[in-house]
Amino acid sequence: MTFSGFPTAALDFYDDLEVDNTKAFWEEHKAVYTESVAGPMKALTAALADEFGEAKIFRPYRDVRFSKDKTPYKTHQGAYVAVAPATGYYVQVGAPGVRTGAGFYDASPARLASLREAIVHDRHGAELEKILSDLTAKGWTVGGDRLKTSPRGYDADHPRIELLRHKSLTLGRDHGFAPYVHTADLLEHVRADWRETSPFVEWLLRHNRA
C-alpha cells in the first residue's frame, strides 16, 4: 500500500470515538479504523523505515487494569521508531489531527542519572540547551514528565535546573488539520520533522551510558 495521507474519515472516526468510546461503536466502525487509520499508518511508517527503522504501531486498546478511566479504546493512533530503550521518533493521528515527536518517555534511575550528569556538564549541557533552543525557535514544544522540586543532589539555583527536573524529555510538533495531512505530502513532513529532531535524539544516545 502506498501512503496517500490520512483521509478525513480518520479524523472523523476519532471525533466520534471521543463521544462514544464503546465496544458497540468500535465494532460498527472497525472497517473505518482498518482502512482509514491503521492502513495509512502502516504505509507511512513503511515508507520511513529505510531511513529510520521499523516502527511499532501501537494497539488501539487501552490498558484499563489500573486506571479509573475504563473507556476501552485509545483516542489516537500512534507509531514509534525506537533507537534505544524508550527513546526514538513518534507520529500519531487523532481527532486533533497529526502530531510528530521525538525524545525519551521513560528512563531507569541509572539512565536518568547519566543524562543529568550530561546536563550539568558545561559543554554537554550547553549543547543540549542550544539544540532545544534552536528547535523551539522552529516551532517545536518541549514536553515530558517533570519533578515539581529539584532532583536530589542538585542545586535549585543550577542554570539548567528546569532540564534537570525532567524524568522524560520530548519534543512535539502539531500539524493539526493542515491540508497536506490528507495527501502523500505528509510523508515528507514527517520525514523532515524526524530529521530535524535527530540532533536531539543523537544527544540522548551519546549520553545514555546506563
General description of the model:
- This protein has 210 residues and is of the alpha+beta class.
- The protein has one domain (8-206): BirA Bifunctional Protein, domain 2 (2-Layer Sandwich).
- It has 6 helices and 6 strands; from the N terminus they run ααββββααβαβα.
- Strand 3 (87-94) and strand 4 form a beta hairpin.
- The longest helix has 30 residues, at 23-52.
The poorly predicted ranges are none
Radius of gyration: 19 Å
How many domains comprise the coordinates? 1
CATH homologous superfamily placement: Protein of unknown function DUF1054
For the terminal residues, how far apart are their CA atoms?
40 Å
- Bin the helical content: 40-55%
Count of separate DSSP helical elements: 6
CA-based shape: globular
Report the biggest beta sheet as strand number plus sense, adding barrel if it closes: 6 strands, antiparallel
Secondary structural class: alpha+beta
What is the number of beta strands?
6
Beta strand %: 15-25%
Give the arrangement of secondary structure elements:
Layout: H1 8-19, H2 23-52, E1 56-57, E2 76-84, E3 87-94, E4 97-104, H3 109-120, H4 122-137, E5 141-143, H5 161-164, E6 169-176, H6 186-206
Antiparallel strand pairs: 1-2, 2-3, 3-4, 4-6, 5-6
Helix pairs in contact: 1-2, 4-6
